[in-house]
């Protein structure tokens, strides 16, 4: 009997490790979004059009991998709530690309890092979920961090970019709570429609004609890897680990996104962004660690303690 338990524990541990690696891989690919936008060098609408076209094709492949021959029927039966999910994600996606064109990647990622707090606030008003004292304390720290960053905005474009970042984060928070309220929505199908909507909305405003091969390749990488592949990794990995752990691992996106453009394009965040961003990320970690199972929480706390050499 004990051998059976040990075997089950080993399988569960292996699955959890695989889940963590999958989610970390998804966060790594998401973190390249700002880099791909800089590589493309196109205006926001043209970037949205080509990125979403490639994302649409890759997500159709994911949908067929999931549903096989039933895919056309699943797409036809998206339903009203599926359309709501797609509309929210469409708004979030377009706002994200506009934000990246208007301000620095560090600014966008810092606002995005506050998403767990917006999710909790939306869930409080929509689903009646309780708010903990830990959340209130962490939320106040995060607000202070964002205030420091906004106070350091150096131009109107920065302020516009921060506004777009907030719109992106708010609509994505609404999407997550909507998914909790309507768990029957097939998110793969909804994401297919998201990118279809993005293509249709962006087409009238995008530059007609093919971009340069370099720009087209950047949009293809953005659409395929930051959408199709990353979505699949997160979908698989997120089912193997607690949601709070998945959220913590997703913070790799926030940390790595500014790093890539710093290394490749010398886009350096200023001191106020680093200070504000550090407060926001620290507040999010403090908030999410409180949601981890006790065993996982001890692992995180022990890993943060200095070790004797």
TrEMBL record:
<feature type="transmembrane region" description="Helical">
    <location>
        <begin position="212"/>
        <end position="234"/>
    </location>
</feature>
<dbReference type="GO" id="GO:0016020">
    <property type="term" value="C:membrane"/>
</dbReference>
<feature type="domain" description="EamA">
    <location>
        <begin position="18"/>
        <end position="150"/>
    </location>
</feature>
<dbReference type="Pfam" id="PF00892">
    <property type="entry name" value="EamA"/>
</dbReference>
<feature type="transmembrane region" description="Helical">
    <location>
        <begin position="159"/>
        <end position="177"/>
    </location>
</feature>
<keyword id="KW-1133">Transmembrane helix</keyword>
<feature type="transmembrane region" description="Helical">
    <location>
        <begin position="189"/>
        <end position="206"/>
    </location>
</feature>
<feature type="transmembrane region" description="Helical">
    <location>
        <begin position="271"/>
        <end position="289"/>
    </location>
</feature>
<dbReference type="InterPro" id="IPR037185">
    <property type="entry name" value="EmrE-like"/>
</dbReference>
<keyword id="KW-0472">Membrane</keyword>
<keyword id="KW-0812">Transmembrane</keyword>
<feature type="domain" description="EamA">
    <location>
        <begin position="161"/>
        <end position="286"/>
    </location>
</feature>
<feature type="transmembrane region" description="Helical">
    <location>
        <begin position="134"/>
        <end position="153"/>
    </location>
</feature>
<protein>
    <submittedName>
        <fullName>DMT family transporter</fullName>
    </submittedName>
</protein>
<dbReference type="InterPro" id="IPR000620">
    <property type="entry name" value="EamA_dom"/>
</dbReference>
<feature type="transmembrane region" description="Helical">
    <location>
        <begin position="78"/>
        <end position="99"/>
    </location>
</feature>
<feature type="transmembrane region" description="Helical">
    <location>
        <begin position="105"/>
        <end position="127"/>
    </location>
</feature>
<feature type="transmembrane region" description="Helical">
    <location>
        <begin position="49"/>
        <end position="66"/>
    </location>
</feature>
<feature type="transmembrane region" description="Helical">
    <location>
        <begin position="246"/>
        <end position="265"/>
    </location>
</feature>
<feature type="transmembrane region" description="Helical">
    <location>
        <begin position="20"/>
        <end position="37"/>
    </location>
</feature>
């Amino acid at each position: 009997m004990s051998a059976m338990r040990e075997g089950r524990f080993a399988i569960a541990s292996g699955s959890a490790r695989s889940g963590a690696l999958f989610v970390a891989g998804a966060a790594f690919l998401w973190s390249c979004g700002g880099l791909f936008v800089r590589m493309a060098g196109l205006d926001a609408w043209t970037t949205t059009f080509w990125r979403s076209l490639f994302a649409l094709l890759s997500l159709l492949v994911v949908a067929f991998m999931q549903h096989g021959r039933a895919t056309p029927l699943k797409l036809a039966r998206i339903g009203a709530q599926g359309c709501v999910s797609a509309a929210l994600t469409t708004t979030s996606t377009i706002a994200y690309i506009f934000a990246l064109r208007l301000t620095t990647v560090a600014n966008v990622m810092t606002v995005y890092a506050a998403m767990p707090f917006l999710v909790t606030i939306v869930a409080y008003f929509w689903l009646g979920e309780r708010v903990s004292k830990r959340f209130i304390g962490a939320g106040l720290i995060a607000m202070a961090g964002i205030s420091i960053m906004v106070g350091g905005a150096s131009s109107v474009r920065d302020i516009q970019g921060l506004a777009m970042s907030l719109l992106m984060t708010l609509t994505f928070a609404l999407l997550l709570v909507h998914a909790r309220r309507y768990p029957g929505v097939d998110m793969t199908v909804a994401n297919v429609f998201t990118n279809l909507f993005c293509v249709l909305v962006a087409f009238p405003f995008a530059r007609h004609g093919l971009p340069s091969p370099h720009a087209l390749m950047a949009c293809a990488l953005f659409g395929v890897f930051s959408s199709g592949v990353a979505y699949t990794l997160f979908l698989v990995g997120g089912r193997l680990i607690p949601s709070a752990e998945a959220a913590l691992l997703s913070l790799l996106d926030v940390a790595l996104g500014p790093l890539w453009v710093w290394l490749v394009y010398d886009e350096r965040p200023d001191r106020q962004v680093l200070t504000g961003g550090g407060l926001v990320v620290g507040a999010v970690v403090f908030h999410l660690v409180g949601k981890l199972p006790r065993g996982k929480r001890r692992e995180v706390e022990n890993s943060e303690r200095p070790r004797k050499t």
